[in-house]
């Protein structure tokens, strides 16, 4: 079991790390990266982490219907307030009028603009995930970077856009701010995105009986950034 109050000690993190890595993940291979040689004479926590890389198709951008809906809502808007009931014949006329306005809206759009947006939304992203340990918060922290097929990294705004809506709303409600930020990776010294760990101990208090703190934590964090955790993995603990 994990340490009380939802936190995790470094030694237990290392134990959970080994178990986590050996679980039968589907289409995901986790590897250990050891940086203890950076400080050979000092035993510092946080110098070993897990990493993996996956191709991910953003869930809330993966079909043309999403683009169509967004364009309709942004350029056409709400047409009727439905405050009064009208005759069936009048409703049909209004419906036809609405359809004509939508067609006019799309006729004004640049075809290349639509093609570019569809291509952007439907292109898989290469996402690299690192699970590190935070000595400050005594808990795991997820660092990640998302890359286009040409190797360019996504901006923070673009990262936020590919997060499924249900997770954006949930985390904004819990934290009152965007739960993803960008800073230098503590070991690689490269810009990485990371999921804020400040509330981890609070929500992990609900998992105080878990056999593997790391897996329970990742089952909450992972899906928000493109990695689903099959429930069957818990049967292998």
From TrEMBL:
Highest taxon of the lineage: Eukaryota
Biased composition (Basic and acidic residues): 78-96
GO MF annotations in UniProt: Atg12 conjugating enzyme activity
Gene Ontology biological process terms from the UniProt entry: autophagosome assembly; autophagy of mitochondrion; protein modification by small protein conjugation
Keyword Transferase: yes
One Pfam short name: Autophagy_act_C
GO cellular component, one term: cytosol
The keyword Transferase appears for this protein: yes
InterPro entries cross-referenced by the UniProt entry: Atg3/Atg10
Keywords from the named record: Autophagy, Transferase, Ubl conjugation pathway
Region (Disordered): 78-102
Assigned protein family: Belongs to the ATG10 family.
Protein name: Ubiquitin-like-conjugating enzyme ATG10
């Amino acid at each position: 079991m994990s340490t009380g109050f939802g936190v995790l000690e470094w030694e237990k993190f290392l134990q959970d790390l080994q178990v986590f890595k050996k679980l039968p993940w589907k289409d995901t291979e986790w590897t250990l990266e050891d940086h203890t040689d950076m400080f050979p004479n000092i035993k510092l926590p946080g110098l070993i982490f897990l990493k993996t890389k996956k191709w991910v198709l953003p869930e809330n951008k993966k079909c043309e219907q999403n683009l169509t809906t967004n364009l309709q809502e942004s350029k056409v808007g709400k047409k009727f307030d439905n405050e009064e009931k009208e005759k069936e014949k009048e409703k049909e006329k209004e419906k036809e009028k609405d359809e004509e306005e939508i067609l006019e809206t799309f006729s004004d759009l640049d075809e290349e603009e639509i093609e570019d947006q569809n291509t952007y939304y439907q292109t898989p992203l290469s996402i690299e995930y690192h699970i590190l340990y935070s000595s400050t918060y005594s808990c795991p922290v997820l660092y990640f970077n998302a890359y286009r097929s040409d190797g360019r990294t996504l901006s923070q705004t673009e990262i936020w856009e590919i997060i499924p809506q249900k997770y954006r709303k949930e985390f904004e409600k819990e934290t009152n701010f965007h739960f993803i930020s960008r800073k230098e990776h503590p070991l690689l010294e490269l810009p990485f995105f990371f999921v804020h760990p400040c509330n981890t101990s609070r929500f992990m208090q609900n998992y105080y009986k878990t056999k593997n703190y790391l897996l329970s934590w990742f089952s909450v964090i992972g899906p928000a950034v493109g990695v689903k955790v099959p429930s069957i993995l818990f049967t292998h603990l």
